[in-house]
Amino acid sequence: MHHTGSSYRGQRVNGRLEGTGTYTLPTETKYVGEMKDGMFHGKGTLFFPSGSKYEGTWENGISIEGKYTFADGLEYKDEKWHYCDGYDRRFYTEICKGLKPAGKSQLTNLDPPRMIPAGCYDCGDGFYNPETRVVIDYQQRFLRNADDDEHDWIVRTCRKGWDQMVGFRVKK
Fold first, then answer.
1. Domain extent at residue 82
2. How far, CA to CA in Å, does 28 sit from each of 56, 167, 170?
3. Which of 13, 34, 69, 155 could form a disulfide with 18 if both were Cys (CB 3.0 to 4.6 A apart)?
4. 124: Cβ–Cβ under 8 A, 6 or more apart, which residues?
5. Residue 107 CA to chain centroid, in angstroms?
6. Residue 72 and residue 92 in contact, taking contact as beta carbons nearer than 8 Å
7. Is 35:23 a contact under the CB 8 Å cutoff?
8. Residue-wise pLDDT tens digits, 32-81
9. Residue 171 lies in a domain
């Protein structure tokens, strides 16, 4: 499990990661927990750069059970998932803190919403520039090039960094 840009604080046995420690991947995702023979093994938590986390039990590098928690504290559930289910369309922060008064819309779960660079879209894991077709993360680092399907989806559905007027407009 040695990757360029990764680091490990903990015990090594015969050159392999062993015991309890902290392993940081090149993506800045961090694993804190038990390891055996160089693999996640036992109890451990993955902390993602977005602020979300996955707490799990691992066997030889494979998660056998666990719980994912979004950065805002919302816990994902496989069953009986009531968040954004078609009936209740509130953002999780609105469920926790209540709705804003009439006339004040909350545009995203993050409130106030993230500022999007001019000419770009917020596609959920970063900003998309339709001119270059590049997605960068929120720290301005390259994530990926968008293919035609992703480009079409982003342009059709995602929040854009211009013309931020929200509300009803009369068509002429």
1. 77-104
2. 19, 39, 47
3. 13
4. 158
5. 18
6. yes
7. yes
8. 999 998 889 999 999 998 888 999 999 999 999 998 888 877 787 777 66
9. no
